[in-house]
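[Meeting: bench + compute handoff]

Bench side (C.D.) handed over the final construct sequence. Compute side (W.E.) agreed to return the predicted structure before the next meeting so the bench team could plan truncations. Sequence as handed over:
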Amino acid sequence: IQYTILWLDSHNGTVMVLLTLAYVVCTLLMVWEMRRSNKISQELERSRNRPFVVFYVESRDRCFYAVIKNFGSQPAFNVRTTVAPDIPRAHEGQPGISFVENPVPMLAPGAQIDDSLGATPTYLQKASNTTHNATVCYTDSLGKKYCEQGPVGFEHYRNRTTSYVETAQDKMARSLDRAERALDKFALSASQL
């Protein structure tokens, strides 16, 4: 021990330089780690504080709807939706899904846009077994672009185990569907005259 003390005493300048260098290296490592930690925190905050728009199909009030909804905490701008292959409408000749054909300029947080596809029993018979691939692309308020993709299908609704009892509203909806088809045929034949 005495030899170590004598050596340290005779080389105290060198020892102080080495200890200072170790202190500087440790400080630089701490600064680097704090910057990395701050960057991760900022990325996490940005990922939580962003728009998140999703396309899906839902059955509600005895009708199918195509829906886009912003589940995020910020507004989404220039929302463009594509679906391949196209999701059919209940009747031939009807225009396509409004928000697929025309981009939505802005969708507020929690807001949704839906477009009726057709009455549940009638539409379910028409809807194919095809899985449709939907893509929703949009930007946030800073101009950062996001794209969400996912499959959309109707198998879930076909495989339900609940029984379906036709109500007076369903009969009325079916009658209105038939009347609308008849009017469409009449309009088509009248336009050909």
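W.E. noted at the follow-up: The beta strands are 53-60, 63-70, 76-84, 104-107, 112-119, 132-139, 145-152. C.D. will use this when planning the next construct.
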